[in-house]
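Deliverable D4.2, example record:
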Amino acid sequence: MVGADIYDRYQDVTDWSALSRAVDWLWVKGTDGGGRAPTRADGFVLGARRHAIPVGLYHYAQLVPSPEAQADVLAAEVRRLGATQVAPALDIEAPHRPGAFAREFARRFLRRLVDHHGFRRVAIYGNSTMLAAIQPHTLGIPGLVIWCADYGLNDGKRYPDVRPYTGRVDVHQYTSRGRLPGIRGDVDLNHALTGIPLLTEEDVLSALTDGEQREIYDRVHAYLNSQNVETLTIVRRIEAKVGALSDDEANIIAALRAKSDNLTPEEQAAIIRDQLDGSVLRALRTLLTEDQAPEEAQA
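Output generated by the structure prediction step:
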């Protein structure tokens, strides 16, 4: 299982279809210190989602502001872009140095994502020397994905020895000189040792506040009541965005399609609001994000 992490300063995606056949997931640099990364992150996330590549964001840690403030920046971008399929990641390297300060920064940043923002699965990235100092497997962070960079000869092949770090590794970044179809130039390649670092539907829902869920449902209702928007249109759009429906969800959608002519918009909205969740809710979030996407991200 191969994943890539990309940053618009170094990579340019030229063929999303080719890339989708070559990788199992993507991390995109989304935030840096107290602010957002360049707006190309929008295009990367949108391109990945349109081609069914699971995508998440990583944050490049600076010394200031506080770890909590920086975690808030990452969480806000994950929600804004709908990059909720892969665990949000903390990238801790220079200007941080291996030691007690970096360990405490990481602990507070990750706890903020878990305790305040509700993410059930989060990730930390560092080279083997940094992780040896931080010892992330001892931080007590539930659902922590440990992402270790160690290149060996850095010839594009994976060398599994990541010493001096001897703790658990979930994802090994094994080269910075990888090549992938659809990306111009070198790219970091990652090998998943314990499964792709995906967020489950429950993880996604837990990171949404009641108010955010209500906003989605209200907008669904507005779709169904707006001019020139038929129930079947939104149902088909939802179907196109959902990779795997449970039997119950598939049956509900089938029933909604069959009965659409006989249901009022209020009844249709109630079916979606009260009976469809999980992957369908994620699909709705994707649709709403696309509707709000800037023009340059849709080019």
